[in-house]
Amino acid sequence: RPIPYFAEGEVVSGFGRGSKELGIPTANFPESVIQDLPSSFDCGVYYGWAKLNSYPEVFKMTMCVGWNPYYQNTVKTMETHIIHQFDSDFYGDVMKIIVLGFIRPMCDFPSLDALIKAIHNDIEVASKSLDTEESLQFKDDPFFNAEQ
Ligand code: ADP
Ligand code: MG
Is residue 59 part of a domain? Predict the structure, then answer.
């Protein structure tokens, strides 16, 4: 897998799978950003850092790379859950991410309950992995400060 992986793009609306209703909203990138993703980027859950242009902080995130059902699973998706409680949506913001590690191979689970448990576990794994010195180096990466 090509890690660390840097990506940026506008936050667009996804397919409304109800992630927000599960308490786990996932921000989507436009197709152009997904087209740049190397094919060696396996489906599954990753962790890394995320920055939005309208917030000064760099946040922890989990990202799921999967197949897009809208395109008969021929096109991938990148869905980023920022580990932070926001007061409002940020559609239209530019989001920058640095993907640093792989957590597990699957985005979906047979039952909603199993899925929610797995996602909460991912958030914990991501949070711990991002507290390591190796990961923290990337939090201050010039990529996040550069002008868009
Ligand atoms: P969509 O189908 O548009 O992806 P979601 O239910 O997954 O809908 O919600 C995603 C949206 O929620 C994001 O585009 C963003 O504007 C907002 N949002 C609020 N908090 C977060 C968060 N912590 N992580 C990701 N997105 C968030
Ligand atoms: Mg979503």
Answer: yes
